[in-house]
Amino acid sequence: MSFSIDLSRFKVKSEQQMKTVIQKITMEAFERVVLKTPVDTGRARANWSPSIGAPTAASYPERMDKSGGVSIAAAQRAAFDWNCIGSIFLCNNVNYILPLEYGSSRQAPAGMVRVTLGEISAHYGGR
Question: For the residues of 2-19, what is the DSSP string, one character each?
């Protein structure tokens, strides 16, 4: 009886620890992408938008976020709220985000998303 209780406790604790680790890595990845986004007006940084379950079509053409703080806070809230079921997305719908990702800016010639995925993969051993 006590063995099965111990296993139940272990299962609950392990699931919570895995969720915490996944959420922290997700928050870190989102923050890195936002901070790697080149800044001119701050519009590209302002348009990083997290969503759970499906990519978002949200766009904030008037919003500027040179520091990335607003976008990072929104991404961290979404990662914290995510229950690790389904997918979590970080989308950017400005019409020039793909050229930025593929080197149109001298500030981020290697992109933002691809670089971040490589860094996260190397750091956490997901080769």
Answer: HHHHHHHHHHHHHHHHHH
> Total structural domains in the chain?
1
Whether residue 124 is contained in a domain is answered as: no
Polymer length in residues for the chain: 127
**Per-residue pLDDT, 8:** 79
Task: Look at residue 123 and tell me if it is in a domain.
Answer: no
Residue 60 has what pLDDT? 73
55 token code pair: 């990519």
Parent domain of 29: 19-118
User: Phi/psi zone of residue 29: left (φ > 0), alpha (ψ -120 to 50 degrees), beta?
Assistant: alpha
51 by DSSP, 3-state: which? strand
pLDDT block averages, 10 residues each, the chain of length 127? 73 85 93 96 93 85 90 92 89 94 95 96 78
